[in-house]
Specification:
Layout lengths: L1 E7 L4 H12 L4 E8 L6 H7 L3 E4 L8 H13 L5 E4 L8 H6 L4 E5 L11 H7 L4 E8 L9 E8 L6 H24 L3 E4 L2 E4 L6 E2 L1
Parallel strand pairs: 1-2, 1-4, 2-3, 4-5, 7-10
Antiparallel strand pairs: 5-6, 6-7, 8-9
Amino acid sequence: MKRIVILISGRGSNMEAIVRSCAQERWPARIVAVIANRAQAAGLQFARAQGISTAVVDHRAHVSREAFDQALAEAIDAHAPDLLLLAGFMRILGPAFVRRYEGRMLNVHPSLLPAFPGLHTHRRVLEAGCKLSGATVHFVTGDLDLGPIVMQSVVVVKADDSEETLAARVLASEHLIYPRSVSWFVRGLLRIEGGVVRQAEGATQLLI
């Protein structure tokens, strides 16, 4: 039984999707904790309602990023996770932290990586005149938003899209590909070959 810890900063809609999929699909896994860097993170209430352990490690209470990373790692390791998930966790994690969980930490990003890493993704997509956008689930490495890709979704950019309307459709696709990617991990169906992630059963890694 794999143990999963999820990090959030806000409402945690991807966390909710993962928790529900884990229960409904009966993964060989359990969400053992949800940890936030903000006490006001709305997702904590949902997690508690599901009987999941929660904790807050406030980044503002630490004098440096390294000190925060260390405190966060201690809170995570108290639950002995096999997998760490970033689900709208809005803090950049330092190299030592990333190395600590390398190979067992996933993130979802609202673009078709490697295009548009970082912030303000939807604004940049619209400004560039892209006709397609989407989301990417990837392993976290020291290169921001550029780790090996597990799965991607494709979302058509409409002529009348705003940042908000595009973001809503991309987020809906995240709720599909992130749980699917996590289920593959906990079932031992992912392997990385030459920096490329393969699904052992040959399942498609693209949602259109």
